[in-house]
Amino acid sequence: MKKNLLAALVLGATLVPALQGCFPVVAAGVTTGVLATLDRRTLGTQTEDDTIDIKAALRLGDKLGDKAHTNVTTYNRKVLLTGEVATEEAKTAAAAVVSEVTNVQGVHNELTVAAPTSYSDRSNDAFITSKIKGRFVDSGKFNPVHVKVVTEAGIAYLLGMVTQPEADAAIGVARTTSGVKKVVNLLEIITPAKARELDIAQKSTPPAETKAQ
Known about the structure:
By secondary structure, the chain is an alpha/beta fold. The chain has one domain. The chain is 49% helix and 19% strand. The protein has helices spanning 2-15, 25-36, 43-64, 88-99, 119-139, 164-175, 192-203; strands at 69-75, 78-85, 106-109, 112-113, 147-152, 155-162, 182-185, 188-189. α1 (2-15) runs antiparallel to α5 (119-139). The two termini are 26 Å apart.
């Protein structure tokens, strides 16, 4: 029962961005709020990451206009850039713009110089992400909330704060998921003792501080 609930929450969070036009906002908020209490990042860091996502996306829009397709994903103040831009100069400029956003501590520039992908390609990437997250839950080897998955053009990027065994398990699941062409490991490795410390700290956070961000 607990596993089924976790699967519903994880997959719900994965699908919400693609369904914002027809998915109740309150449901999205509940899902985000529950998952926030399981995340190893503090609530303050989660809020900062969300703010970085918004500011970076706006700056990229101003800098690159509609000639590029870019996605911003921030985890623990480190930004992953994926998508397509027209030139190498645009790729370099994108990283520079994002690195200047307040609280950004690093940028993984995975943008490719190519034409923007189609809507069907992006839908397929979202489907692959949902499959990976579902298989994380089924594996039962680690808490799937601790690993964020971003899929772009069939390439799965993994972010999170995990122990080495958790990282190995996540990478193994992602690599063997149908549709995945490559796995890029951006996971931050922490010790088992640190993982326990972070997990306990989040569980002890007062409910009033773990509402939707």
